[in-house]
Amino acid sequence: MDSAESTRHVFADTLAAFDATPPAPPLTTSEVADVVDCSRRTAYNRLEQLVEDELLETKKVGASGRVWWRSRPTTASQPTADLAHGSYESVVSDVFGTADVGVFLLDDDFDVVWINDSIERYFGLDSAAIVGRDKRQLIRETIGDVVAEPDDFAETVIATYDDNTYAEEFECRITAGNGRNERWLEHRSKPIETGEYAGGRVELYYDITAQKASERALREREHQFRSLVQTVDEYAIFMLDPDGRVVTWNEGAERIKGYSRKDAIDKHVSTFYTKTDRAENVPVRNLATAARDGFVEVEGWRVRKDGTRFWAKVSISAIRDDDGTLQGYAKVTQDMTDRRKHERQLRRERDLVENLFDVSPTGLMVFDTDGDLQRLNSRAKDILGLSHGEHYAASEVDLVGPDGQPLSFEERPLARTLTTGEAVTNQVVREAEATDGDRRWFSISTRPIRDDDNTLKQVVVCTDEITELKEQARQLEQQRDSLQHELDEVFARVDDAFYALDDEYRFTYVNDRAEELLGQPEAELYGQNVWEVLDVADDDPLRKQFETALATQESQIFERFSEPLGIWETVRIYPSESGLSVYFRDITERKEDEQEIVALNRLNTIVRDITDAVIDQSTREEIERVVCDALAEADVYKFAWIANVNPTTNSVYSRIEAGVDGYIGDVSISVDSDDPHGQGPAGRAIHTHEVQVTRDAFDDSAFEPWRDLAREYGYRSSAAIPIVYEGTLYGIIGVYSARKGAFHDGEREALGQLGEVVGHAIAALERKQALMTDTVVELEFRIPGFVEGAAPKSDADGTITLNQTVPIGDGIYLQYGTVTDDAVSTLEALVDELPFWDDVTITEQAVGDATFELRLTEPPVVSELASRGGRVKHPRIGDGDLEMTVYLPHSVDVHRITDVLEDVYPETELVTRHSVVQTDDTAKRVAEAFADDLTNRQRAVVEAAYHAGFFEWPRQSSGEEVADSLNIAGPTFHQHLRLAQQKLLGELVASATASVGE
C-alpha cells in the first residue's frame, strides 16, 4: 500500500453518499455535506475534484444552486471499488500528485511516508529530505519557520498525533521566502483507520489564498454596503426575517418612520401599516407576493411611531440562499409625501392653466412640430373668424409685413420658432386682404415648449389685434414728425450742446452734440430727470443755478467743471414758463491749456531761480538743499526729495527732503525692474535716465505699492527726475503734487532740464574739487590679453600709447596718442571690433612712430572718469596687454570705477592703489584756471588742437582740420582758441611773477 492510501477514504466517503444504483437522484452540496459530516465548502471542493476525475457529473440550478449525481454504474472495476479495497495508489497519485491540494501521508509513528508536489511548493520542502522523518520534529525544525503563527500551528497539529482519534480543520498562513509565495492554506486531517498505514494520519492542505482574498473583499464590500445603508437617511432600508420581523434598521428608517433601532428590531412589518391595511391583510399579501415573484413594489400610506401618516413608495425583495431557501426580505421605503403633494399641486395648476387658456382675452393657439394646429381658445377663434370644427392651416393665410411686402410662411413667427427653436416677440403683421372692411393689424408672439431632454415638442402662438393701436401710433408719429421738423429747423443753427427740460427737469429734447457729451441717445434720455443722468450731489451749485433760473425766469451764464461728464463747460440757462433751455460748450481743452501755461510759467521761473542759485553753492549738499527747498516752496508742488542709489541693496536712500518729514524713510523703492517696487517713476527713471511720472496715483496700476502713502501724504501725482550729466547718474529728484493730471509734456521737459542743470553743477563741482585737491588716489590697472580679447584676429606686436582725451559734447570724445609702425594694424583692428571706438585717423606717419586721432562715442570708462573728476595717465597697449594709471579724488567711490572697468573688460587686474600728493603749485593754478576760467568749448578746442599737432612745427593739423573734428566752423575754432590762450597765458604770467616776487 502506498502513500495515497489515507486520501482514498476521503473521496470514498464522499462518493459513497450517492446511491450506487443508477439512476440515482441528484444531491445538493448541503445534502452531501450532511451525509459525510463535513462543512459545505469542504464537500463542494471534494465534489469538484470527483467531477474532474469524471466520477460525478454536475449542473447549475436556480440563481446560485448546483446538484451532483453519478451517471455511470458502479462495478468492481470502478475507482470506487478500488478505493474501497485499498488498491488506489495510482488514483491518489493521479489526483494529488500535481493537484493544488498538498498531501502529507503519515504512518502510525507519524513519520512522513509521502508528500506531493504541492506540499513541496507550499512549504518550500524537498521530498527526498522529508520522507521518513518524524513529523513532530519536522514541524519544530522546518515547517514552523514558514508558518505565520508557528506556536499555534505546532500545538494544533501535534495534538492530533497525541490523540489520533478525531478529524481536524483549521486555516494557516505561509510566509514568503526561499522560492515560496505567501499563501493561505486550509488544513484538513483525519486518522487512517484501515490498511497498511492504519493508525497513521493523512493531512490535506488546500490553497485558499484566492478564497481568502475574495472573502476579505466580500467582507469589505459588505462593510461598505452596510455603512452606506446605515448612513443613508433618504431611504428606510432594513431587513426582515422569513416571518416578516425586523432584523436590521438604518438611519433613514429611523428618520422616516420615527422608530429607533432598539424599538424597531423584532417588530413585525405590519406595525408600519395603517389599521385598514392590516385589517385587509395587506402586509402579509405583500410579503407573499415578494416570496412568489421575488420582488414587489407598491405605494400607499404608512404610519410613523407618533401616529402620523406619510405616503410611501415601498419595494420588497425576497432573499434566498444557494438552494433557494427563503432567508428573509430586503425592504426599501421612500417618503413620497412631498412628491405626491407636488403632483397634486401640478394637477391643480394644470387645471388652472386650462381654465386660463380658455378665458384668456388674447388669442392662444398650440401647434405641433409639423406646424399643425392642435388646439386654440375662443378668442383665437374670434380673431381668425373660425366656426366650430372649421379647419385652420397657418400656411394658407396670406400676411404682409409692416412694409407692405408679403411674408412667406418661413418669415412668420410660427415657422421661425419651428426652425430655430427660439421665441419670437411681438412681430407685427397685417392681413394681405381685408376680411371685412379695412385690413387688420396683428401682433404675434411665440414660445417653444420643450420636453425633459430639451427637444422641441410644441409651439404656443399668442396673437392680438392691434389695428386701433396702429392707427393711433400713426397719428402720433405724424405729429411728432411735424414737431421734429420744426425743432430741427430751429436747432440746426445751434452749434453748442443743447437740451430742453420741462418744469420738473425732465428731458424733452436733446441735440446731437448733447447726446455725444451725455453719452446716451435722445431716445433713452427722453423723459428722464436731468439729475438722474448727471448724478450730481444735492448741494451741487448746478442745482442752485437751475432752480434760480426757473424761479426768477432770469438767464444764468457760468463756467464749471462737470464731474459726471469729466469736462470743463460754459453753461447758459434760458428759462421759460414750461421749463429750461440749457446750452453748454466743452471748454476742457482751453482750460487745460490755460492751466498748463500757468503751471509751466511758474515752473520755468522756479527752474531759472534754481539754476541761478546752484551756481553759487560750494558743496553738493548745498546744491541739493537749494533744489529741494525751491521745489517744495513752489505752490504747484507739495514736497520734494533727493535720493541716491545704493548698488549693494538695489534700493535708494535719502539725501535731502523738503516740505515733508520722513517720507523717503516710509517708502520702499527698488532698482530691480522685476520688483513691483522698482516699476514706479523712480525705478523707471533710474533705468532710463529720463523723467518718469505718475499723473494719477489712484489710477496708475504701476503705482499700486505706494497708493496708501499717496492718501496719507495727500498727493495725487508724482515725478522722478534723474540727475544726469554725461551719462552718469548722480541721484533722483522726487517731486509730488496734489493736482490730478500734473506733469504734462511741457512740465516734464522743464523738469528734465532741471535734472541736467543739477547734474552739470554737481559734476563741475566734483571736477573742480579734484583739480584743487593736493592728495589723490592713484590706481594702476592691467588688462592682460586686451588685444586678444578685443580683436582676436589681430597681432599683438608693437605699442599704442593714449596721451589725451578731449570731450566734444553729446557723448563724443577725441583721443590722441602715438602708435609704433608694427602696431598700426592692431589699432585699426581695435577700431573695427570695439563698439565705442568709431574711427581713427593717422595724423603723421614716420619711421617707427605715428600720431593718431581716435573718435569715441560714449566710452564707458572714459565717461565715468570724466564725470567723477578723474583722469588717466597715458594708457599703454604693449605685448597685447593694456596698462594705465588712474587718478581719482578721494571723494570718488573706487569700487564704482573698478566695477565699470570689469563690466567692460572682465580680465581687469588692480595692480596697486595708494595716495599721492600734487606738489606743483604752478601747475595747480594753471589747472584751476583751465577748469574754472575756460568754458567747456574752450577747453575742448585747446585740448584737441594740442593733441592734433596744431602747435607743432611744422603743423601736423590745420585749424580747419581741427575744427572739422570738433564739428565747428573754422572762425569759431580760432575765436575760442585765442580766448583760451589769453586766459591761460595770463594765469601763467601771473604765476611766474608771483614766484619771482617770493
TrEMBL record:
Residues 459-493 form a coiled coil. Keywords: Coiled coil, Plasmid, Transcription, Transcription regulation. Residues 88-133, 221-294, 349-421, 483-553 form the PAS domain. Residues 296-348, 422-478 form the PAC domain. It comes from the Archaea. Pfam families: BAT, GAF_2, HTH_10, PAS_4, PAS_9. This is PAS domain S-box protein. It comes from Halorussus limi.
